[in-house]
Amino acid sequence: MNETKILLVEDDRLIVENLTEYLKSEGFRVVSADGQRKAMEILEGQEFDLILLDVTLAQGNGYSVCTEVKAKYQIPIIFLTALDDEFSVVTGLDMGADDYISKPFRPRELVSRMRTVLRRSGKSQNVFSAGDIRIDTEKGSVMRNGKEIFLSALEYRLLLVFFSHRGMVLTRTMLLEEIWDVAGEYVNDNTLTVYIKRLREKIEDCPQDPKIIKTVRGLGYKLEG
Predict the structure, then answer these.
(1) Which of 88, 120, 152 is the last residue of a domain?
(2) pLDDT (tens digit per residue) in 135-192
(3) CATH code at 163?
(4) Do the beta carbons of residue 124 and residue 4 sit within 8 Å?
(5) Are residues 13 and 111 in the same domain?
(6) Do 50 and 143 reside in the same domain of the chain?
(7) Three-state SS string across the chain, please?
(8) What is the tally of structural domains in the chain?
(9) pTM, rounded to two decimals
């Protein structure tokens, strides 16, 4: 599975460290640059799916980076900045930025916006696989050993949540927050247990000894593979 590659242009080391760690847990590959010159050097040698760009940099500035990137590459840009006044927002968007989020921001909101921009730009990943399971989100299909299997809407959403957080332990509370609105009704803890059981019956060789969606005792579940 190819990871979505992100260039983070930010000179605050603490933000770089924390955001890089969070984005990695969400399945992104992150390369960072602390200024305009370093960012452009990196772009000359590597390809990226999205740029997260701070407006105020110790070396250069985000607006200049945006102008140079848009002139040379077809890469979507999201501005990260503490400048939340209307002029800054309009300036960033007029220069070609695809979105704009003000600090401090919630990491989950940022990831949601990133995925929206990636979808709009045609750079979002639409095929996922683990073991003998393959998901094509563009077609809305799930294959097992080359044969399509049929999931309910909630089972499909639940599976996507696991694939989107590969290797990360998901608590039952986190899973409930992700799927409750898809069912069109309240999903309680017992219902979640039932759906995980049904999902395992469809994707696991041995549901009683799962190899893909594993139980992490006392914590939750984790997608392996």
Answers:
(1) 120
(2) 887 677 899 998 999 998 888 888 888 887 788 888 998 888 777 654 455 678 888 8
(3) 1.10.10.10
(4) yes
(5) yes
(6) no
(7) CCCEEEEEECCCHHHHHHHHHHHHHCCEEEEEECCHHHHHHHHHHCCCCEEEEECECCCCEHHHHHHHHHHHCCCCEEEEECCCCHHHHHHHHHCCCCEEEECCCCHHHHHHHHHHHHHHCCCCCCEEEECCEEEECCCCEEEECCEEECCCHHHHHHHHHHHHCCCCCECHHHHHHHHCCCCCCCCCHHHHHHHHHHHHHHHCCCCCCCCCEEEECCCEEEECC
(8) 2
(9) 0.59
How many C-beta neighbours within 10 Å does residue 154 have?
20
The CA distance from 192 to 175, in Å, is 8
Same domain for 31 and 62, yes or no, is: yes
Distance (Å, whole) CA 182 – CA 205: 27
Q: What is the CATH number of the domain that holds 25?
A: 3.40.50.2300
Domain, as residue range, for 179 = 127-223
Q: Please, are residues 174 and 216 in contact by the beta-carbon 8 Å criterion? A: no
Q: Are residues 52 and 148 in the same domain?
A: no
Give residue-wise pLDDT tens across range 15-70: 999 999 888 877 788 999 999 999 999 999 999 999 999 988 888 888 899 999 99
In this structure, the answer to whether residues 184 and 96 fall within a common structural domain is no
Q: Do both 164 and 214 map to the same domain?
A: yes
pLDDT of residue 131: 82
